[in-house]
Structures are given as C-alpha cells and as structure tokens.
Specification:
With 657 residues, the protein is α+β, with helices and mostly antiparallel strands. It is built from 22 helices and 21 strands. It starts with a helix and ends in a 5-residue tail after the last strand.
Length: 657
Amino acid sequence: MLQKLREKTSGWIAGTILTIVTIPFAFFGVESYMSQRVETYVARIAQPPSWWPSAPRVWPVTLLWQIEDIDAQTFKERFENARINLRNAQGDAFDPKAFESVENKRRVLDALIDEKLMQLTAQRDDIRISDAEVADTIARIPDFQVDGRFNADRYQMILAAQNPPLTPRAFEAKIREELATNLIPARIGRSAFVTDRELDRLMRLLGEHRDVAFVALPAPPADTAPVSEAEIAAWYKAHQGDYRSPETVRLEYVEVDGSTLPAPAVDEASLRKRYQEQIAKYSSPEKREVAHILVQLPANASEAERQAAAARANRLAAQARAPGADFAALARANSDDAGSKAAGGDLGWISKGAMPAAFEQAAFAMQPGEVRGPVKTEFGWHIIKLNQIQPGVQRPFEEVRQELEKQALDNGREQAFNELVSKLVDAVYKNPTSLAPAAQALGLKVQTTPAFSRAGAPGIASDPKVLRAAFSDSLIQDGTASDPIELGPLRTVMIRVIEHTPEQVLPLAQVRSAVIAAIHAERARKAADANAEALLAAARRQGLDAAANAAGLAVVKFDDLPRRSPAPVLPQPLVDAFFNVPRPQKDTPVLGKTRAGGQLVVFAVRAARDGDLTQVTAQERDQLRQQVAMALGAQEQEAFIKTVRSRYTITVAEDRL
C-alpha cells in the first residue's frame, strides 16, 4: 500500500500541485509567521476586482480584492462630534447612556460606510470635477463672502485659522472630492418628480374633511380592591426590569486648574524678543485690488482649441488696453469666470500667496490702472487690471506691548500647568491605586464625588469624557487611576473609582408599594378598556348616539373636520385616529376606539369628502410638489446606496465600537 501511495505522489502532476501550494507560502507564509498584524478597523469594505467580479472570497484570491477600512479613530471622532451636536441641541434633556446604545453607534457607523461607498463609486466611475465647478462652489460658500461677494482675503484668513491650517490647494482638493462623492446621489435626488395626477390625488387626500362624532369615556373609579401576595409576587416577577437601580460609581479625583497658578514674571527684554520673533504677525502685507477677464482653457483641450483660446485672449487684451476701454463691461460680456463675471471681473483685494504664481507675479509688478496679459495659468488665460495698491503696514512695539505681555503670561502659565500635570502623572503612575500620595507631594487636593449614574451629575461628572472613563471596565475592575482627562483649556483631572454599584434588581420589600400601585393601575386600565369595548359593541348594534344615551354619556360632534389644520381644535392624536380608519361606505358610519391624552374615546366617522382642488393656490401646489419630490428623491438616494452596498462585502467589528 505504501509503495502505491509513493507512486501516486510522484510524477509531473504531483510536482505541479506541490509548486502551486508552495508559491503562496513562499511569498506570504513566512511573513505571517514572522509578524503579527493587529486589526484596528471598525468596518471593512471589500469588493472583487473589476476584471473578475465573480472572484470567490477565498485565500489567496482575496489578495486581489479591493479593501477599504474605516478605522476606530475615524469612528470615534465622528461619534464624538455627533455627541456634541446632540448635547447642544437637547441641553439638559440629553441622555448620555441612551446615546451610547449599540443602535446609535451603528447609525453613525452606517453613515461613514455610506460615505466611503460613494467615494469608491465616484472612483470606479471615474467622476471628474472641473476647476470651474470647484471655484464656483467655493465662491458660493457664505463664510468666504463679504457683502454677498467672494472675498479672497477672508478666504485665506479662514483657511489659515483652521486646526491644522489649510492651504487653498488642499481645501480645493477637499471640495473636489466632496463634489465627486456626492455627485451621483445628489443628481439622483434632484431627478425625482411628481406628475399632476399624483399631485391632485395627494392634495385631495391632504385636504380631506370628515364628519365625526365621539364619546370620551370617564375614567373608572380608582381600584381599591385588595391585592393578594400571589398577585404581588407574580407582577414583580414579570416586571423586574421596571424595578432596577442604575449602575453607579463614586470617584476620588485630583484637578489641576491652570487659571489658579501664579502668573510668571515678564521683563521688557523678553517682550521685545517676542516682538521680533512674531514681527510677521504684526505686519499686514501689501494688498492689491485687481480685476480680470478669464479665457478658460480645459486641461484636455486640443491644439486647435488652445490656439483659439490664445487668439481670443490676445484680442480681449488689446481691447482692454485701448484708450477709454471699459474693463468691467468687457469682463461682464466675455469672462469665463462665473464667480467674478457679474462683478465686472473684480476679485477684490489679494495678497501674495492667494493666486497662481504667474497671475501673482504679474499683478504685483503692475501700477494702478495698468492692464497686463494675457497671463497663462492652470485655469486658462487672464487679462489683469490693477485698480489700487494698499501698502503693507507694521504695527510698532509700543502699540502691541500689552498683547505681547498677555501672550507671555498665558504661555508661562500654560508651561507651568503642563509641568505640574506631568509631575502629577509621573507621581500617580508610581502608585496608581491611590491619588493621595501624589496630591500631597504636589500640594494638590484630593476631592470625592457623590455616587452618580451614567446620566452624570454636577461638577466633573457632567463631562462626557469623565463619564466614559468612570464607567470603563479597566477603572472599575482594577481600581487604578485614569489617564489625565482634559476638561477644558488649562484644566485637567485624574480620577479613580473608589466605589462601584452595578445595576441590580431592587428587592421586592423595597418596591412593594410601587408594585401594588402598578397592579391597581393595571386593573383600572383593563376596566376602562372593558367599558370602551362594551360601548363600542353597543354602538355597532344601535348606533353611537343611542349607545351613549343608554350609558348616560354625551356625544360630541364635529362636522367638516380637516385632516390638517394650523391650529387643530382637537388633540392631534385624536384627529389622526379619525383619519386613520377607512372612509364610510353607503352612509354606514365607521366605528373605532382610541386613547388620547390618557382617556379612552369611542368614535364614529359619519362622512368623508375630498379636498377641493379649486381652493388650492398655485403657490401651495408648487410648494407641495417640491416637498414630495424631495421626499421621493431621498427615497431614491437610499435605494441607490442600498444597491451599491449589495455589491460589496461589509464586515463590522462590533467589539471595537
């Protein structure tokens, strides 16, 4: 048998198989043994190569797949931004624990996945955004405008103020990517429309009026019947989730507040040295007010198109230099720059670094009133006119001395703060199970908090970062101090959990009265439902008026009740219930039951009429058409994204959320 096996495993077929198996291990096997790879993604998006769409997801074929990851840091930043936005919107009503739910985390992650999928779709479809569209988009951003017009100085200033600062080229690349990513979804959304027939049907439905009658049942008498021990035990067992105490922690903490540190000494020499180091900050560069006429030239233009553009630019330049020429009129009639054309080519005040190199070199070599060009840049040909020059100005030391002194004091206090925090961290890490030794050595105070839940409490326990650390498994289980937690500028705290009480079911003895009250309330609710069902059954037999009269109840009638009204005369949930039942047929009322404002109501819809289209104004019609089209467009966008999702294999690492 062994001899036969040896014969079967020799020869060219076995050698070929052995080679096929060996090659992947030669390239990838050693690496997998020599190194360990730690995955950090929260979501992985994978797609087979475009030239092999049916490629199986098995190794080593998966090496050919396109892989895009969303890392944990990106998710955390987006989730924290969502937290801040929701907290600002809800104020005191914000629930930190509810926000941390798995569903909410997945909602944020799904939005990130959709963005990445749209980026991949734009790349796959080779979507290109023109320079003119990028420039037009930037020019229409309100933050970059002064008096409704794009302002280059404001544009530069806002980009420089970002953290980290952005260059115009980097910002333009970002805008270009966003436009490419959103192009297909945006165009799909804008493609939705509503036909006149659909709009008429919807307006008849929204304008519908109904004749209704209803009876509001009085609340039944309070239930005072005795509650047995068996009922108490059964209710408590079935509703234990309603009788739980929340998880709580109690902390000790040491806070370092830089505003309480003594101000450092500042001398004249150091201030003058700082002034020289920051001389550029106190100097405003020379600015020039310019206008231009752009003859746009696409990057992929043919030679004939290039020659035609150059000839046109030369012709416009000659016209602009002619005595008495109206440069603004020429720009309005001929410029290809959508952002400045309507303003006669006016670009406002520019400083060095704001424009392409060739444009800037020409503009800063001109005299007021001079026209130069054509000047070639990546956007095409420019004919430039210089209107005014604003010389650069340097503020003297005496004028900015107070500002320099404040900087020196702030920097000195910040340095002292950082040194103190560093010493505190070093001291705490030597004995992480207690904050007292480190605090005593540095002259700081150890403070404690009362017990609080994940909803937070006044003081440091209101900070989301403190809450996350306080309820983290590491601090609860180990009893060690946290890393420094930044509460604000020059304000840091280190915390340690000194008491932890897990969420737990409260004992029956402690909640006995609440259980009895709940049983009484449930009995009252069932009694009210039984009364409503009895009245509804009687109304079906003899009509609502007769049934109500027999029960000694009053019937309230409303004729011509609209489906929607700016100021409804009845509670909206009640109106919704009237319109959620079918229309009456052949003068037979439609009966129903609902609960509105904690009160049971039995009602009858006696008649229904469509909205009168002749009473609808053209403006209302157009407004509704736009609203419905937007809603349909949003649905179509979601359908498109869902279709794109189906083309990819998406893996979510739930444990890293």
